[in-house]
Amino acid sequence: MTTEEVIDLLKQKSNAKYLAGMKRFGINDKDALGIPLPELRKIAKGIKTDHALALALWKIKIHEARMLASLIADPKLFTEKQADSWVKDFDSWDVCDQVCGNLLDRTAFAISKAFEYSAAEEEFVKRAGFVLMAEFAVHNKTAPDDVFIAFFPVIEREAWDSRNFVKKAVNWALRQIGKRNNNLRGHAIHAAQRILLQNSKPAKWIASNALNELSSKPSISNN
After folding, report:
1. What single string gives the DSSP state of each residue in the chain?
2. DSSP assignments along 40-53, one per residue
3. Residue 219: its pLDDT value, please?
4. 136 vs 139: CA distance, rounded Å
5. Sequence-distant contacts of 158-164: CB under 8 A, at least 24 apart
6. If I label 52, which of 66, 118, 145, 153 is the partner at 20 to 30 A Cα–Cα?
7. Are 102 and 70 in contact (CB under 8 A)?
8. Cβ pair 174, 209 in contact under 8 A
9. pLDDT at 223
10. CA dihedral (186, 192, 194, 196) positive or negative
């Protein structure tokens, strides 16, 4: 499909009711058409991987076009320069999360970018760092525990950030890593206990929420 054909298709799938409800979920509806993610996934399945088309769609600056771009881009062809450019364009949590979970966490530089972005000042760039940690924990089945243990000091360091989309991502990373296996759960619980001692409101929320989930779960049988 050409870029024009894809944009025409997206406009045909526009859903006024869904668009009206996007703000209720904290989604930036500026330049949005109002297309549910399952519908975008169907479109992506029909297109399959098309890296050139993905790069072209990203430049269109339509909310759903960018989400679709994350679904059809090739992680093996995606460069660090392209990653940095896309991440700087983030203006909504859902685009951030889709790019991280569909694409960035499958690149060769996922780990280094998680560290880099988590130290950024911009809200959605910083969120991307922690979403990357969470998504990498979900999707990469072979990474050793040491990779994730190295994330805990960063999670603890940034637990002070009260911005909603950052603190939720910090919490997500902590919980998701802890759910990977029993060893990492132990490390995550200890990290949460240390975060609790920071005595700031966001740190208390991040730690309490994580401890509530991780401490109540049964042992994970397949370490």
Report:
1. --HHHHHHHHHHT--HHHHHHGGGGT---TT-----HHHHHHHHHHH---HHHHHHHHHH--HHHHHHHHHHS-TTT--HHHHHHHHHT--SHHHHHHHHHHTGGGSTTHHHHHHHHHT-SSHHHHHHHHHHHHHHHHH-SS--HHHHHTTHHHHHHTTT---HHHHHHHHHHHHHHHTT-HHHHHHHHHHHHHHHTT--HHHHHHHHHHHHHHHHSPPPS--
2. HHHHHHHH---HHH
3. 60
4. 5
5. 158/118, 158/119, 158/126, 158/130, 159/195, 159/198, 159/200, 159/202, 159/203, 159/206, 159/207, 160/198, 160/200, 160/202, 160/203, 161/126, 161/202, 162/200, 162/201, 162/202, 163/123, 164/26
6. 118
7. yes
8. no
9. 42
10. negative
Give 10-residue mean pLDDT values along the chain (223 residues): 96 93 89 95 97 97 96 98 98 97 98 98 98 98 97 98 97 98 97 96 97 80 47
For residue 75 the two structure tokens come to 């992680």
Record the pTM: 0.94
Residue 112 CB neighbour total at 10 angstroms: 12
